[in-house]
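Quick start: read one record
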Amino acid sequence: MQKAHVLLVDDEKDFVDIMKERLELAGYTVTACYDVEQAFKEVQADEYDVAVIDLIMPETDGITAMHRIKVIRPLMECIVLSGQGTLRIAVEAMKLGAFDFLEKPCDHKVVTQIIDEACARKHEQDNRIRKAASKVYSRLEQAMVGATFAEAGQFDTAKEILQKKEEK
């Protein structure tokens, strides 16, 4: 499986730079953002699998940032990080759509494992949506073929085509 495309969002430049380097060495494609507005521009411009977002930043909190990212990219998974997290905040983040909540400092193996799990969930959701869309398109195509026969006055053929689709 292809490694995730990760967006790091944290105002602590040294932390982001170190995490970015470690994730890139592990094979991930990583974009670092040192403020939330830069992250929103990135999310609008490019497709990411996972965002790793700091909870406390000067412009906004990580939960609000996560919510805004999810509005732009609903299937993108978000992991919230904090050096000052509480159980209550972690539960709130998860209820509001975070894939997970991690406390700083983070063990690199744990971070990569959670990123991989989040990426796998995103890809599963993408695949389910593609399969559902394919079924819808197939049924629509069959209905259009049936309608074409009906317009030509070949009602029995149209009925037969539509009944075959219902049997599948």
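The beta strands are 5-9, 29-33, 50-54, 77-82, 100-103.
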